[in-house]
Each structure stands twice: as structure tokens, then as C-alpha cells.
User: What shape does this take?
Amino acid sequence: MSELIVIGGGISGLVAGICARKAGFSVTVLEKHAVAGGNLTGWNRQGYHIDNCIHWLTGTNRSTDLHRLWKEIGMIGEEGTVSHETLFTCFYGGESFSLPRDLKTLGNAMLLRSPQDAREIRLLLKAIDAVQGMSGVSGEKHDRKHSLLRTARTLPLLARYRAMTTGELAARFKDPLLNRFLSSFLTDSFGALGLLAVFAHFCGGNADLPKGGSFRAAERVAEKFRSLGGVLRTSAEVVDVEKENGRVKAVVLKNGERIPCDQLLISVDPAVAFPRLLHEKMPDGLACRYRNKRLLRFSSVQAAFSCAVDDLPFSGEAVLPLFSPLSEYLVGSALLVREFSHERSFAPPGRTVVQTMVFCSETEAKGWIALQKNPARYAEEKDKTIRRVLGEIGKVFPSLVGKLQLLDCWTPATYRRFVGSDIGSYMSFAFSSRILPSRLSPRIPRLKNAFLCGQWLQAPGGLPIAARTGVVAAERAARADKKTFSLPFRAHFARMSPGKDELK
Assistant: This one.
């Protein structure tokens, strides 16, 4: 039986391992940390659990192919999913506006709020419906896909939004609250099509949460891999890849152990894989993406607090305005605040976890990473940020003043240590306006038996793209070894075979 090694036990590596086992490989996944899951993770502090990944999960609609993948690999377990009535609520100027689960309800609320914006509202709703139709979550039951003709007719409208950032979209609305509602959730520099996709999936019943949270979802996927006979080795950091005559021969662990392999799949950040493991330059096609200033890389500063459930003045996720920078290292325009009362196991009885997030740019992320070289200054800056965050929360929710107790705070420097990304990114390139996501091939130039997988192969990254690239990379490895996927797994993803190779 052919030996296949996967470097990296995140979602792309685990999915690749599951697919490769189904294709008949003997598979070992090597993960440098003590647990698998990569960015799909969480941790415990002071008797509380902090969820670090899923804000919404595309693929929770049962009619979609992606839902079948999540069920197949264990991302969505027997416990099912959690459905919130709103995805987020924007608070601004003493008022609030929420994104509801129903597109018609959203339209009525926007028109009632601002009749003067009627034309822009109707265009926006039509565009969101078009995205739903392309994704197969349109109609009253969220299970309909638009015909090719109907989709073609909406392309000019979608092209209109492709040319905008969320900030430019928001500027078309005269109402200040709707303006803020549209610009603050993903920041005002994100591509407007990305925001439309979020609205479309949530209003299409396709963006709920797996019960148990991110860490439990990762555990289920790892359990699925093991149940198929795969070997998952944690605390097994790969430091070198041995090559000979255009083929990978073995990988070498940090402890000196050498593991031979017939096929190799690499699911770690390419910025780590090429210089550190493969000892060569990143291919031009991929390197261009890292240099492209229109493909934004970002991170965030986050904190978690304990709070009594009865003290919560909001539900789900709140977006609060920031009118001035929190610090020289954090100049975001919005503060995201989430509560986890829907996960009772995350906190002691009567308590819950409240988490905050402020996005930061690539420049700000690098500042946090550089700051960590001075531990005292790094700790001081985190403390200052926490105080400012609590102050901003208190302005909107005075009842929470003195009610939030700090559990943990983490920054781009934390993510850099954990995932190796040079700026601490936990998602790949976030596309701005006039950018459409294209897919890079998993092929690694000059190596016949090694392939890439992971979210960095297609913007904007995230769990669905990471999983998809795992499927494609395993299929390439199987093809190279003259193997095929067994049904029904391959049947779900026959449409996912990669197109033209772009890595050169």
C-alpha cells in the first residue's frame, strides 16, 4: 500500500487524509501542535472555553453539497447546528439594525428604516437573491438554484457590486445607520461581493454554527480520519523534506525521525512550506498573490471575558462603532462583540463567555509581532487595548460596566506562533473590489509526487475552501498513483477537479 504523508493537521490536511484513505493510501497526518485542527480550534481558561474560529459556517443548509461534505467528515455531528435569529446587530447613534435570517424581512426593515434609499435597497436585495440562486439556497425553502439563463441576466448587476468595496457600497445609502450596518461588519475595504455572499448564505439558512463549537468540530473530523485507519501524529513537527530526482523521498521531524513516503501533501502556509521545508522560492503564481496589494491580508486583536448570562444586554453578535484608534497598533473602525450563551458547556452555570474582536491591517499586524520582542511593552499594549475595549463597550452597554472579567487576550503575534503565517493571518487573502477569487493548482513545480492544499490557494480562504483544496490535492495524489476515490465521497465533489495549473 502506497504511503502518503500529510504535513499539517488543520482542516485541509485532515480532509485530504480522509480522501486519501478512501482512495486506498496508507495515510499519516503530521501535526506540530498537541492537538489537530489548525485555526479550527479553541482553548480553556479559568474554567471557561474560548472558541477561536467559526462565526458562521457555510454549508449548514441540508440541500447543499457542502453540507454533505461536513456530515461525511464530521464537521457537523449528530448534535446538529445552532441557528441564531440574527447574524449580527449594528449599534450606532443610540439605534440598532440587525441582519435577520429572511431576505424579505431584511428588505422590509431597510425600506421602513430609510424610504429614501429604496432604489439602492431593491438593487441590493436583487443581488443577494442572485447569489443565493447561484449557491442553491434561494426560494422559500432555501433549496432552489437559479437557471443558467436567470443567472446570466443578473451578471451585470453582480458586476456592479464587484466594482465596489463595502465602504463604497455603504456610501450609496443616505441613512447613517444603514451606512454603518453595511460598512462595519467586514471593514470598509473588503469587496462588496464578499458582504453580499455573507448576507445570501445567512438569509438562505446556510451559515449556522456546529453545536459544540470549533474545537469539538475539529475533534470530530480527526475522529473520522482515525476511524478510517488513518494515523494522526501530534507534537510531530516536520523540519525538512528530502528530495531526489524530482520526487519527495521522506520527511524529517524535529526529533530527527525520518519518515519515507510515496506521496506528500503539504497543508501549511506556503510562506512556511517553501522556504523552510522545501528550501526553494515560492512559485511565481503564488508569490504574486502575496505581493498583490488588492488581495488584503489581515489579522485581529481579540479578548475573552466572563459574564453573567442575566447581565447580557444583547444576543448573538454586536458591532459597535470605533470613532478613534484603540492604539497606534489598532486603528479599526468597528468592535465586534460576541456572546456564547448558546453553548452552556463553555462556562459555569449562570455564566457565559463574551469575546471581542478588532480587525487590523497587515501593517498593524506586523507592529504587534515586532512589539512582542519587548515582552514588557507587548504586555503593556495588550493591557491598554483591553481597557479601551471595555471603555467602548461601556459607552454602548452601560449595564456591562464592571461586569466583564478578563479571561484571555491574543494578537497577530499569537497567530504567528501558532500557524506560522508571517503576519499572523488566520484567513487567506481577502479580496477587495474588482477582484474575483481564482483557484491555484495544487501542483508543486519540479516535484512529481507532492501537492499543496489549504486556504491560501484561493481567496478569501476559510473552512469551505480549505476543505475543498484537501479534496482536490488528495485526488491529484490518487491520480498520480493510479487510484480512484470510492463512492459516495467522490460523487459529491466530482465538480471540484482543478482547472488550469497556475503555479509556475
